[in-house]
Design goal:
The protein has about 300 residues and is mainly α. The chain has 2 domains: about 55 residues; about 230 residues, MetI-like (MetI-like fold, Orthogonal Bundle), CATH 1.10.3720.10. It is built from 13 helices and no strands. Helix 2 packs across helix 13. Its main location: membrane. It is a multi-pass membrane protein. Keywords: Cell membrane, Membrane, Transmembrane, Transmembrane helix, Transport.
Length: about 300
């Protein structure tokens, strides 16, 4: 009887092992498919762009000679590239703080709403899921010379403005549109962070006599630090990659005053067919995003003791 009893146990043990192995094969197989996709779609093109950036890669020529850093030297001697680089810095320095301030302000207001909170969230989030091209063309129509805003200004007795036709005004209007469209995303991120802050901290501070501003500065902001780090990095990458709004609202004009680095890369590659210069500019953009993200994580990511 003892022998007969041990046989089914070993049989069960071997079958359980095979089921375990099948489970691990299934798990690793599911992980392998997106990994292959990521390597094929993301990693390999990035590595290939490094190869293109050190060659004179003209689509109209069969020969692709190695030129080393020649494409990078050409870029930094190109005034249009330098202008696009300065514009991109402006997009980041103006757009990211504006996005954070507006998103946090709206999140704080919605947090204090007692009725129809879901409706307000939906209304503020709708622009984020709306087509970027459609939004850009609507605002382009609004800020035309004979558009809605100039019509209102004339009715009020003010002088009409150039807006998107002005080298000094256009870039800030594009930034404003980008902030408005990303407001819903920033609002949801900050709302999630605000709702994770224990209410007892603010209640204790209020009992000690701290006013709203003191509670916001010394409690809310420090505890929102991880959310702020995430939001700054995502916003910086988004503004560094400014393309669709610029292309549809101004085409990079007037006088290249709104030309972003990504739009300049697009022009180099698909209008002038200078793939080597375009790949070199892409490598520069990659380096800027990498360094900026690392610096922001180092400076902003502070440990908070509750």
């Amino acid at each position: 009887m003892a022998k007969n009893e041990t046989l089914p146990l070993t049989g069960r043990r071997s079958s359980s092992l095979s089921v375990k192995q099948q489970r691990y094969l299934f798990i690793y197989g599911c992980l392998l498919i997106p990994l292959i996709f990521f390597i094929t779609i993301r990693i390999l093109p990035i590595l290939y762009s490094f190869n293109i950036s050190v060659r004179e890669w003209d689509l109209l020529s069969d020969e692709k000679p190695f030129v080393g850093l020649g494409n990078f030297v050409n870029l930094f001697n190109d005034p249009v590239f330098l202008k696009s680089l300065r514009n991109t810095v402006t997009y980041v320095l103006v757009g990211v703080p504006g996005q954070l301030v507006v998103g946090l302000a709206v999140a704080l207001l919605i947090q204090r709403v007692t009725r129809l909170k879901g409706l307000y969230r939906l209304l503020y989030f709708l622009p984020y899921v709306t087509s970027v091209v459609a939004v850009s063309w609507v605002f382009r129509w609004i800020f035309m010379k004979n558009g809605v805003v100039n019509g209102i200004l004339l009715e009020l007795g003010f002088q009409a403005q150039l807006f998107l036709g002005s080298p000094t005004q256009a870039i800030y209007l594009v930034i404003a549109v980008m902030i408005w469209q990303a407001l819903g995303f920033q609002m949801l991120i900050f709302l999630a962070g605000l709702e994770n802050i224990p209410a007892m901290y603010e209640e204790a501070a209020a009992i000690d006599g701290a006013n709203w501003w003191q509670r916001f500065i010394h409690i809310t902001l420090p505890l929102l630090n991880p959310v702020i780090v995430f939001s700054v990095i995502i916003g910086s990458i988004s503004f560094l990659q400014s393309f669709t709004q610029v292309l549809n609202m101004t085409l990079g004009g007037p006088l290249d005053s709104t030309l972003s680095l990504v739009l300049h890369i697009y022009n180099l590659a698909f209008k002038h067919f200078k793939m080597g210069d375009a790949a070199a500019a892409t490598v520069v953009l990659f380096a800027v995003i990498l360094v900026l993200s690392l610096v922001q994580m180092k400076l902003l990511n502070k440990k908070i003791e509750h």
